[in-house]
Amino acid sequence: MLCNAYLLEGEMSARTLPLGQVAHIIGQSTDPRSPRGEDPLGKALRDESDNLMLLCAQQHMEIDAKAALDVFTVEWLRRVKREHEDRVRHLTALGPERSTTVMRMVGSVHGNAVELSRETAADAVTAGRRFPLYLESYTRHGVEIDLRHTPGERAAAAWDAETAAEASRHYYRQATKVIDDVVRHQLRPGIERDSVQHVSVFGFARLPLLVYLGSLLDDTVPTDIYQRHRHEQSWAWPAEGGPVTDFAAHLVQAGPGGNEAVVVVNVSGVIVHREVPQELSGLRRYEVHPMGSQAGPDILRCRASLRHLEETLRMLLARLEREAKSVRRLHVLPAVPLSAAVTLGRVHHPQVHPQMVIYERLAGSYVPTLEVGRVSD
Q: Which residue of 2, 45, 114, 330 sits 20 to 30 Å from the alpha carbon of 372, by its own alpha carbon?
């Protein structure tokens, strides 16, 4: 119960074995040697379920060790038992349609990394009334894309503007191979055999890679994208009911006709006109921004805000199909939170929409780093 170990299977033999041990919160006996046995609880009640816990052998020994009795008090054990039972009741109340396959992509952003463990993701998922499904073929850690050891990952933060374009091509080539491999060999086979019917995505990595990951997610599989909330230090979406942000997309510069256009996505920050690279300054340009509020890093405070941003991005791409049919390449400058980057990639359809060239701010300048989709004929 305390360590959440699976107590019906041997770790070394993989055979079905009853490994759990029944432990008493208040000792079964009133003898002074019985752990916590001096409690006044009646002897007839000491073998009742309220006074029992199921533990692994090691933790059973530890809670009963004389040197640790001041830590593992009756009050502490009862509280832990109650919290565990409440969690189990919550999970067992969820039907199979509430299961989800957890997908985590872990890297660093400007040299910084965050804690994004299996447990962190599971807590966020269960708070949203789903339970994480860890298929054995994906290992017990779910679908994980680990970019922390990709060559050039840490050096990327120190690139200067002159070498950024060349260095980024090599780094992103390596990183996208890692992403492709996991999606191809873990996620897609599960989707094809109907083992994966819902996906929960957690991503902490450089923005172009989050966009790329989103572009690989099958739009036919229901998907929830999670956001890290800085104030709460949590990945769980707050309960609905808070302030919801709407978004809009505007044509800010008509520009000449042609097969290229620019989209500036101002959500977590603002990219001003002078920051648009000189070679893009004359192109047709659209801007996505929040309505009625300032762009900022904590603007996506609830799931509904992310849904509104997704709708706005979809409408923008549909608008391009109607009024700028000649456009074959979109230069995208994103100032967005993590979840919005994944969403940007997910709304893009490689067979329908123009190729996206994702820019990244490096050493004070925006440089092209990664292409999503191909230039259509």
A: 114
